[in-house]
Amino acid sequence: MDGTPKLSRVKVALSGLSHVGSVRTNNEDRFLIADITTGAEIQGQALDGHVLTDRGTLLVVSDGMGGAEAGEVASRIVVESLRDGLVQAPPFVVAKDALRGVVEQVNLEIHNEAMTNPSCKGMGATLAAAWIVGSDAYFAHVGDSRGYLLRAGHMRQVTRDQSMVESLVEVGMIDRSAAESHPQRNVILQAMGARPEVAVAIERVELRRGDFLLFCSDGLSGKVTLDEMRDAILTTATLSDACSRLVDLANARGGEDNITVVIAELDGEGLPETALNERMTRTLKSLSAFDFKLGAGYAPPSAQPTHSLGSDPVADEAAGPKVYPPPGHPGTPEAPPQNELTLNIGTLPAPKKSED
User: Fold this and answer.
1) Buried residues in 52-61 as b, exposed as e (16+ CB within 10 A)
2) Of 86, 71, 67, 66, which Cα lies nearest the Cα of 27?
3) pTM for the complete prediction?
4) Is there a domain that residue 283 lies in?
5) N or C: which end of the chain has fewer CB within 10 A?
6) Can you tell me the distance from the alpha carbon of 15 to that of 59, in angstroms, rounded to the nearest whole number?
7) Which runs of E-coded beta strand occur in 193-336?
8) pLDDT tens, 208-258?
9) Which range marks the domain in which residue 130 is found?
């Protein structure tokens, strides 16, 4: 034994790619991969895997929107301020609370910039991120950029689009097949900076050795199917090759929007193997959810130990502006308290949690 605590021996291989697409002239998407212990951006040296540090690794994808270059400003603030906020978080903190609190602060930063800077008026951005701490990944989500989990050959969307169409599915007005061609499928219900409050959907994923995480903007998910994402990861030589293949596929199908993808592969002795017949949903837990019936605010997590996690990507989505319907300013109430152990992210990852 080398004396290294077992939970710290988690390796993460990483790659990301952002492309302007085939139609647009500027790229409003941004992504970031960062070590939260040091705050350093992780680039090429991590493609073959780096050991997870005490405070973990952050993956972020953000799709900016707004006039002139305002969308680029919004997505840059999302990725950089989220990293900086987590780096500065106190050493003893509940991971989900730190993540939600920092996202709310970043949202207010973007909103204030949009209100005070005329060139940034109306800007906003989506957020899809994972904070990998110990043997868990905490997903944070605002808007319609997406996060997926690939395990043992099975791929699932973990995030759920905060969109008008998804709200219609939620209340039973349309079914999933109708949602794929709905004329309002580009309308999202909230975005970072659109108003002072934001409801951050957070999921915890208990990681297994050999898991893959994929995050992308809708420039990819609107053109590439779930099966195609899975096949690109499993049949290419490197994660970098998988990113390139997916971006090329989205461009070949029109590439009307910017296209961004980040892929992570998890390995190491600090992660358990996937148990025989273990259900993926058994390792997924909703910690705070977007309330589709309100159009904003938090919904209590289900009383069940698992939850419904999104839908298949929409194929061949037509490009179009994203519109925010009037929110009615319903407020953002506190999420219900969770039985969550405090993570000592300044020293060692948390001890193994009791069953939820």
Assistant:
1) bbbbbbbbbb
2) 71
3) 0.82
4) yes
5) N
6) 10
7) 201-206, 212-216, 259-267, 284-290, 298-299
8) 999 999 999 999 999 999 999 999 999 999 999 999 999 999 999 999 999
9) 6-160+189-344
